[in-house]
Amino acid sequence: MRNPYLAPERRSSHIAYASASSEEAAKIDGEAFPQIIGEPVGGPPQLPAGESITGYPTDNAAQVDLGEGKRAVLESLEPIAVERRCPTVPGDSTTTAIM
After folding, report:
1. In angstroms, what is the C-alpha Rg of the chain?
2. Buried (b) or exposed (e) across 8-46, using 16+ Cβ within 10 A?
3. What residues form DSSP beta bridges with 88?
4. Residue ranges per domain, the chain?
5. What would the pLDDT profile of 20-52 be if each residue is shown by its tens digit?
6. Taking Cα atoms as reference points, which of 69, 64, 40, 68 lies closest to residue 52?
């Protein structure tokens, strides 16, 4: 629900950024939301150096080698892998074909 008291701020923001190019808008968004902009959407998670995904027991889970003999399992509410005719592979948010 919109807050009527914020209408002047919305109007001001719309006017201030209406002439921004795509590049300028991306820069503005990146500065306003650095923890969101630039993060991949979908697919396997980005892991720290030295860690790697070793398997996908389900579409929503990944087995992870943490290094130094340690292992973990990640689980997601969204699919992080898709099953194809070949073995399960990391999800690709650009894939359009559904098998």
Report:
1. 20
2. eeeeeeeeeeeeeeeeeeeeeeeeeeeeeeeeeeebbee
3. none
4. 1-39, 41-99
5. 888 888 888 888 888 777 766 666 778 889 999
6. 64
